[in-house]
Each structure stands twice: as structure tokens, then as C-alpha cells.
Amino acid sequence: MTFATLGLIEPLLRALETLGYQTPTPVQAQAIPAVLAGRDLMAAAQTGTGKTAGFALPLLQLLTMEGPKVAANSARALILCPTRELAEQVHASVAEYAQHLPLTTYAVYGGVSINPQMMKLRKGVDILVATPGRLIDLFRQNALKLNQLQTLVLDEADRMLDLGFSEELANIYRMLPKKRQTLLFSATFSDDIRLLAGQMLNDPLSIEVSPRNVAANTVKQWVVPVDKKRKAELFVHLMRKGRWKQVLVFAKTRNGVDALVDKLQGLGINADGIHGDKPQATRQRALDRFKASEVQILVATDVAARGLDIEDLPLVVNFDLPIVAEDYIHRIGRTGRAGNTGEAISLVCADEVNMLSAIEMLTRQTLTRKMEPDFEPEHRVPDTDASGQVVKKPKKPKKPKTSGGGGKRNLGKWVDSGEVAPAEPSIKPVRKVPVFNTGPRKRK
Ligand code: AMP
């Protein structure tokens, strides 16, 4: 199959040739004809599958072939993205595909001044890529009208809900013309996403390019149990032992990113970090340097790393497990791409046992545990498996060890083998979908 047989017009084929795309990926092969035929789409596809071209190519073709010229302060197609990184990335791809077409494209997102964006929108743009919050601001300030909108794309819809954009999406839904084409892309399909799709889409074609919620099987995954306070030490130990070259490391919080980067830099290790508190230019610089192999270790939060197009990483390390289990799939999706093998190592402490259990349940596998000599945890990580069970051993009274009993003597201190530290953040934050949440929820 070629892009020509999918019915794409010559200026698009020329752009694809320049980019070196020879064969459509599975999501493209399914999405392109459906979008050209005017269908709504509900696509299960994550970053790395070629989903951007899957919606952008037919969208550009439709906008070129049909519809009126764009009016002032209007957009003919809107692509909603969860983060500004993804918005910029999607916009860059769209602009490349559109290089031989007489169409205008632009990206708007928060965290930067709104005025230049308002100026740019005066003449109208054919394709607008936007994050939800900034889109609403522009709409409310009359810088943007949506009555000319032909197509709406929701990119990484699951992430938009995870980031708490459900209210914004509900507001945007009210701003849209009733007659439009809607394409929804999501790596995972939770009940909330299905609810959103039910409201937004009209008789959608469902396409799925990888098994639902199953992590890539080209990625070798395992867990190293460790005490929380020794994670950084273990990371450095594993890095030296395994002679790691380039590693993307995920930490849960911004502070966590900074602390690990400081520690690694203090040891003379070439590390940098990206998170939402850092200015966009700094983040981009760190990423560019990582891609150019000038930085060996890049530590990131999920939000900052989301959608980043880093090709073919050999290794991803979860310094902390993600709070939302689906993020585990996104994280490890950074390695083992395009049939290459990759490794994903998670450093897991007792506090994280519920998260580990949720990940195993979601990915339908029990992750192999490998104890690292000298790093055996004082606080045991209870057994887990793909059924979602956390096997807690019965609590034993704290007392100095005298004989038997299954506890471990460590640094002269009695440690209950079933002890799990409290105050665990919930695995899946309860998400509200205000407007969309109209009926009883269907359970899978
Ligand atoms: P995406 O999943 O849209 O983020 O795309 C992942 C990467 O694959 C991007 O770097 C694209 O430029 C690239 N890509 C998308 N489609 C193709 C194709 N048909 N052939 C080769 N590369 C592609």
C-alpha cells in the first residue's frame, strides 16, 4: 500500500516524499480513507504510531478541496492537545505536511503572552492547534470564532482528562457548531473517554492499532524493589553497573526531578531535567541536547515528557511509578519502538505498591522483580500480580527479633514484613466530566 493508493493529492505526496515516508503506518492506512470520506473517528493510537499524519493528511486535503476561504478571526479546523509541547510538535508536523498547500496553520497555548496570538488570528487560520485553556481565553476575548469550524481533532484525549481539562472540554463543546467532523485520538479508553466520545462523535468509525492497554511486547520490563531513601543511590549504582548510555528517567514531581538532577550533576553525571515549572525555551534546549546525545540522563515529569518525539531510546527508568497507571504505558512507549527492543526498569518502594498493582492490572502482566544485592529494601514491597491483588502479610507486633517469624533484621531494627507506608496518593484520581457525565456509567 502507498499513500497514493489511499487517495492523497499530489502536493501532500510530494511533502511525504521529502519527509521520507514511504508506506502508511497501520493507523494511517485506516484513518486516511475514513477521514477523507467524512467519517467521525475514534482511534486508539499512541504517540509513535504515526497518528499525527493519520489525521493531519486527510484533514489538509479536505480543507484544500472543499469549504470557503477562512474568515477573519476564524479557524476551519481545530486540533486540541493537552500540552504546549504536543501542540508545538503537532503544529510542526502539520506545517511540514502542508508545505505545498495554500493553507495557513498556527499553534496557540498558555504560558506565553496572548497578544501576539490575538494579532495572528485576525486574518483567520485554516488549521489551529491549541491547548484547551488558551483556546477558551481567545474565544472569550472575541479573538476567535468557531462558526466556520469544519473539523475538530481531540489529540491524546485521555491525557486531557488526566490533566483535569474536562471542564474546559465541556465549555469548548458548547462553543462548537453542531455540524462538524470530529476525530478523537487516545492512547487508552477509560469510561470517561467513552463518555466524552459518546457526546462528541457521530457514528464514529473505531480503529485500534495496538492491543488496548497492553504495553509494547518489545519492551523488557522489570522492577527493582528498594527503599525510597535509597532510590538515587540505586539509580547511580545501576547506571554504572549497566554502563547506561542514554536514559530517559521519569520522576513523579517537579521537586523530584530537580532533586535527582542535582544529585546526579553533583556526582559529575551529565544530567538535565524538564518539568512544567521550567520555561519553554529551557525545556526545549534540554530536549534538543538529549536528542543530540549531549545530555546522557534526562529526568522528566509525565506532563513535560508527554508527546515528545524521541526516537528509539534503549532504556526508560521509572524513578517513581506514575500516579495514573496509563502513564506507565506512555512512559515505556518511549523505548522498543518500530520493532526495536527496549528496556524499562522501575525502582519501586513499599509506598508505591498500589501503583504497581494498578499497572500490572492494566497491562495484564505481573512484572518481574529483580532484587539488587546490597539494596534489598528494609520496607518490603508486598507481592502483587495482574489480578490487582496486593498480598499483605498479616501484621506482626513490633518487637525485637528473637526467633523465626518471617520478619527481616536490618540495621538492627525490626521491620514488619507486611508494612506499607501510609498516605498513598490514589491510583486513579477521580475525574469529573461535568457536561458529559449524563447517564449511569457503564462498567466494562
Ligand atoms: P506520531 O505517532 O504522529 O507522533 O509519529 C511518530 C513519528 O513517526 C514521527 O517522527 C513521524 O514523523 C514519523 N512517521 C509518521 N508516519 C510515518 C510514515 N508513514 N513513515 C515514516 N515515518 C513516519
Automatic annotation (TrEMBL):
Motif extent (Q motif): 1-29
Domain Helicase ATP-binding: start-end pairs: 32-207
Region called Disordered, residue ranges: 373-444
Zinc as UniProt keyword: no
Coiled coil: none
Comp. bias (Basic residues): 392-401
InterPro entries associated with the record: DEAD/DEAH_box_helicase_dom (IPR011545), DEAD/DEAH_RhlB (IPR044742), DEAD_box_RNA_helicase (IPR050079), Helicase_ATP-bd (IPR014001), Helicase_C-like (IPR001650), P-loop_NTPase (IPR027417), RNA-helicase_DEAD-box_CS (IPR000629), RNA_helicase_DEAD_Q_motif (IPR014014)
Enzyme class: hydrolase
Domain of life of the organism encoding this protein: Bacteria
Basic and acidic residues bias locations: 373-383
Pfam families found in the cross-reference section: DEAD (PF00270), Helicase_C (PF00271)
Start and end residues of each Helicase C-terminal domain: 218-383
An example Gene Ontology CC term for this record: cytosol
Catalytic function, reaction form: ATP + H2O = ADP + phosphate + H(+)
Listed GO biological process terms: response to temperature stimulus; ribosome assembly
GO molecular function terms listed in the Swiss-Prot or TrEMBL record: ATP binding; hydrolase activity; nucleic acid binding; RNA helicase activity
Gene3D superfamilies hit by this protein: P-loop containing nucleotide triphosphate hydrolases
Sequence ranges assigned to domain DEAD-box RNA helicase Q in this UniProt record: 1-29
EC number: 3.6.4.13
Alphabetical UniProt keywords: ATP-binding, Cytoplasm, Helicase, Hydrolase, Nucleotide-binding
Family from the record: Belongs to the DEAD box helicase family.
UniProt-recorded name of the protein: DEAD-box ATP-dependent RNA helicase RhpA
Originating species: Pseudomonas synxantha
Gene name linked to the record: rhlE_2
